[in-house]
Amino acid sequence: MEKKVGIIGAGISGLLACKYILSKGYTPAVFESRSGVGGVWVNTFQTTMLQTPKSYFQFSDFPWPSSVKEDTPDHSQVLDYVQSYARHFNLVRHIKFNSRVAGIEFEGAADEELQSWELWGGNGEPFGPEGKWRITVENTQTLSTEVYLVDFVILCVGRFSDVPNIPVFPPGKGPEVFQGKVIHSMDYSDIDFQTAAQLIKGKRITIVGNMKSGLDIAMEAAAANGVEYPCRMLYKTKHWSLPDYQPWGIPLLYLYFNRFSELLIHKPGEGFLLSLLATILSPLRWVFSRIVESHIKQKLSLDKFGMVPEHSFFKEISSCSITTMPKGFYDSVEKGSIILKKASEFCFCKEGIMVDDESAVLETDLVILATGFKGDKKLKDIFVSPAFKDCIFGSSTASIPLYRQCIHPRIPQLAVIGFSESISNIHTSEMRCWWLAELLDGTFKLPSIREMEKEGEKWDKYMKRYSKEHYRRSCISILHIWYNDQLCKDIGVNPKRKKGFFAELFQPYGPLDYNVS
User: Fold this and answer.
1) Residue 155 near residue 8 (C-beta atoms within 8 A)
2) Which of 28, 111, 273, 332 has its CB 3.0 to 4.6 Å from that of 222, i.e. a possible disulfide?
3) Taking a C-beta distance cutoff of 8 angstroms, is the pair 269, 485 a contact?
4) What's the confidence (pLDDT) of residue 129?
5) Whether pLDDT at 471 is above 80
6) Residue 469 pLDDT
7) Handedness of CA 240, 59, 378, 44 (dihedral sign)
């Protein structure tokens, strides 16, 4: 009998899921709220560029076109690349555009029975004998609603869109008292480039947040207004933003993305010898981190601007908090067209913003909140069942409880792709889609629910050890080879993809190493 798989989202993860599901003979139905494919690359800032080198941001069986010479292409080149992938593999015909998923509801066993199961889905199989998912879809143009029944659901909703993280303020100190305009970076990216340019031109702008979105918007504001109307950037924490991926001429990939670098890290489920080796080699983590830090400090003159972070670069990369510094950012700071201001807390008043306990008002016309997104809320709200809402969210003091960062042990016939982060989300999503397709095809079976939960606890411990307060991001950045090894072993393929001992140990691993076509 034909098995139908519902895929929610036609960003990079959704396209990959569609392609791999098709390869196993299943019938996918992809629901996308926008009018085209591309996910977060559909709406960007004019200056947005790829964060990682393109050799690391690519599909394993679809290389970048030779016409793209840049190592970090701009947003239009990335979108063209993603859309070309969708056309090349004829995926668009399976996508229902302008289709917003209002909710998903499992039709099968009652909540009490689900909680009593020892195996995922009751029988350890990806497809239950009776269970179905009911997907309620709203057409964003006609506002009509349609319901689809599928045998399996893949959530590819991402975590960096749709649900903005808006700070909460005491009564009388929020945006409602401000006479100017307040928007989120998501609102800024949603408007066309010409309208965005008009919005910021000739205005006193304050940007809250100094991660990638904040940096990009600040550069656009500085270019538009110069020193006449300098852009002010409020930040809580100083970050190690990379000026390039060649610290002191050494490719960053050789310091953090080969098997040797992972020997320096304590890993979930490691044995005694690997644990001992990680302890012995741990000083090298400090050395590698200092190499990168000294390069960033020198290249960006961080001492001069008082912007040297208090934490290590290792912590930055362990929590997937790396950003690429836009070219000329600190030149704009030096000229005075960007003003950096540390602020642990801030609130609004009629004329602008007040920070911490200072009495002076920072007069402002436009405030742009580059404060990120609530990815876990977005994931939680898609479920109709309160029990599943609680399951997928898990404890607020633990990382999202997904086995292999894909399967929730207590939610049957469903997978999540693209929520957990890495240094190359496109590569990690492809590995997970390959793994998931083999699971659906019966190549391997999952362990018991309790075993999967124990495995999740090991990964939670790892994430808290290295990502610290950012453990909810479920970052596998510095262990992506170890993680991929687990997927390969499940599937039954050799996890060692290089030729020769030294190549296996020291050469960086990337998408092309896992090309199985």
Assistant:
1) yes
2) 332
3) no
4) 82
5) no
6) 80
7) positive
Do 441 and 3 touch, CB atoms closer than 8 A? no
Residue closest to 216 by CA, chosen among 313, 353, 327: 327
CA neighbor of 307 nearest in space, from 371, 236, 358, 221: 236
Least Cα distance to 425 among 483, 503, 488, 496 occurs for 483
Q: What average pLDDT does the structure give for the chain?
A: 94
Residue 478 predicted with pLDDT over 70 = yes
Question: Is residue 133 within 8 Å of residue 107, measured between CB atoms?
Answer: yes
Look up residue 146 and give its two tokens.
């349609």
Tokens of 37: 């494919």
- Dist. CA 65–CA 83, nearest whole Å: 13
Token pair for residue 354?
């007040």
pTM for the model: 0.95
Q: How long a stretch of residues is the chain?
A: 517
Nearest C-alpha neighbor of 380 from the set 395, 366, 393? 393
Residue in 406, 249, 247, 403 with CA at minimum distance from that of residue 322: 247
* Per-residue pLDDT at 341: 96
Residue 394 pLDDT class (50, 70, 90 cuts): confident
**In DSSP terms, which residues pair with 155 in a beta bridge?**
8, 416
Q: Which residue has the tokens 């609680």?
A: 390
Spell out a b/e string for 207-244, using b for 16 or more CB atoms within 10 Å of the CB, else e: bbbbbbbbbbbbbbbbbbbeeebbbbbbbeebbbbbbe
Beta-bridged to residue 74, according to DSSP, are: 49
Distance between CA atoms of residues 244 and 257, nearest Å: 16
85: its two tokens: 């992938």
Closest CA to 410 of 134, 152, 115: 115
Residue 361: what pLDDT?
95
Q: For 35-168, where are the alpha helices, taking DSSP H only?
A: 75-88, 111-116
| Beta strands 4-8 and 152-155, pairing class | parallel
CB 156 within 8 A of CB 13: yes
Whether the per-residue pLDDT at 43 is higher than 70: the answer is: yes
φ and ψ of 206, to 5 deg: -120, 125
Q: What is the structure's pLDDT at 112?
A: 84
Would you give the end-to-end CA distance of the chain in angstroms? 27
Q: Give the whole-angstrom CA distance, residue 511 versus residue 517.
A: 12
Which residues of 189-259 form beta strands (DSSP E)? 205-208, 231-235, 241-242
Alpha-carbon dihedral 121, 398, 425, 235, rounded to 10 degrees: 150
Q: Residue 45 and residue 230: Cα distance in Å, rounded? A: 19
Instruction: Examine the pLDDT at 355 and tell me if it is beyond 70.
Output: yes
Three-state DSSP string of 373-393: ECHHHHHHHCECCHHHHHHHH
- Residue 474 CA to residue 392 CA, distance in Å, equals 13
